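F.,

This is the one I mentioned.
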């Protein structure tokens, strides 16, 4: 605890929490007010931590949509509790991380989702052409506190730290003005949760290593790669038993499966069925992206295309950066075509009247007869956005000049830079 509350460690934790910004907890305090609060109250809080008297506040429950549908309940701690958790994380991580499995990639320094995806592809290329795709049922909601704390206590001797971690696990959740106590689970939203999940699931990693299996784990997303369906089904049954008996965790039978790797997704990627598999973007990831972009397009109906292109830019840039490993490039070309068609559709809607449409098409170089024929065709905006007259009038160069980012151009540039 002395290491946690040391000035150097707390200053590093403060910089990290302020840099991450984030929403306020139940007390309404934002990161902007943290410094003046600490100037006045830190000596008392430090003494409470050292004397084992500090009590965390309940977390604020917030539901966010899950990529696959439904919602996930986040627990947002107060800014002060985020600071203390971050300070604990900085001291505890060096104790645990060196002992974690080389096949664990989530929430670890120097490791990433991209490394996990590349490792998965290498396992398939090595001949492990079946995958045991394990989905843990409501993992963060079902963590058994006693099982987790027993694993933390293997490397942490300071009883004050152990008791503080348990208090954070048991801190109530405030939803709709009511606080409910927690007897299981580790609420997502605090700096400690990812480390605690890795500490618990390290037992799974070590069991898979002991059995000599090829696997990749990113947080609670775990894939085991095998050479036959029969071997996969045997592993699925035995690992399900292991998780239930040893870690008190339940495998979601509806979402888990023994299947070909190209029929499953891992971190929103999948692979082709070639002998030397190639990475490609999973179809569900494309659907999620289109859903997010449609919301921007709806807002853009009354705006200039330049502004809409600017609103799209951070989404397009982030998505392409994440999927830069994809070796099947057709989806990037298809998305570029879809994106430009959506913007042509906005233009067609904005013009409204046939006279305006004909005039705009002539301004873009179409002859008068073709412009009027196109403007009077009676078809809907989406059909016209994909028709030859709009494609000829508004080519890729037009959208490049607007500042619209191209998936294909970005993908090419990122891979060239790499």
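My design for it:
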């Amino acid at each position: 605890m002395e290491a946690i509350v040391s000035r150097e460690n707390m200053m590093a934790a403060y910089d990290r929490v302020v840099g991450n910004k984030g929403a306020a907890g139940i007390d309404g305090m934002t990161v902007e007010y943290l410094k003046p609060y600490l100037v006045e109250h830190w000596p008392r809080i430090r003494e409470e931590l050292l004397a084992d008297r500090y009590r965390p506040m309940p977390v604020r429950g917030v539901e966010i949509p899950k990529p696959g549908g439904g919602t996930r309940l986040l627990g947002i701690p107060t800014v002060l509790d985020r600071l203390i958790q971050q300070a604990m994380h900085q001291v505890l991580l060096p104790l645990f991380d060196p002992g974690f499995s080389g096949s664990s990639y989530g929430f670890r320094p120097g490791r990433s989702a991209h490394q996990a995806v590349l490792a998965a592809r290498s396992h398939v290329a090595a001949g492990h052409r079946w995958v045991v795709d394990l989905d843990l049922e409501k993992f963060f909601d079902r963590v058994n506190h006693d099982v987790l704390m027993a694993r933390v206590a293997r490397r942490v001797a300071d009883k004050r730290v152990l008791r503080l971690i348990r208090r954070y696990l048991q801190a109530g959740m405030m939803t709709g003005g009511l606080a409910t106590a927690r007897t299981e689970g580790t609420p997502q939203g605090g700096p400690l949760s990812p480390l605690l999940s890795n500490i618990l699931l390290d037992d799974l990693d070590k069991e898979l290593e002991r059995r000599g299996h090829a696997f990749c784990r990113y947080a609670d997303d775990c894939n085991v790669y095998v050479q036959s369906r029969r071997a996969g089904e045997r592993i699925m049954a035995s690992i399900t038993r292991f998780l239930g008996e040893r870690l008190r965790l339940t495998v979601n039978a509806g979402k888990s499966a023994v299947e070909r790797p190209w029929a499953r997704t891992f971190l929103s990627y999948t692979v082709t069925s070639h002998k030397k598999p190639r990475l490609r973007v999973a179809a569900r990831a494309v659907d999620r992206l289109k859903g997010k972009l449609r919301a921007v397009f709806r807002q853009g109906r009354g705006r200039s295309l330049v502004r809409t292109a600017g609103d799209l830019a951070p989404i397009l840039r982030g998505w392409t950066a994440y999927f830069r490993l994809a070796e099947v490039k057709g989806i990037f070309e298809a998305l570029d075509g879809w994106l430009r068609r959506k913007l042509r559709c906005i233009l067609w809607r904005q013009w409204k009247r046939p006279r305006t449409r004909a005039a705009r098409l002539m301004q873009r170089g179409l002859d008068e007869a073709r412009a009027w024929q196109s403007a009077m065709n009676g078809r809907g905006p989406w059909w016209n956005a994909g028709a030859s007259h709009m494609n000829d009038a508004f080519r890729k160069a037009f959208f490049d000049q607007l500042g619209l980012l191209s998936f294909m151009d970005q993908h090419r540039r990122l891979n060239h830079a790499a």
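The longest strand covers residues 59-65.

Talk soon.
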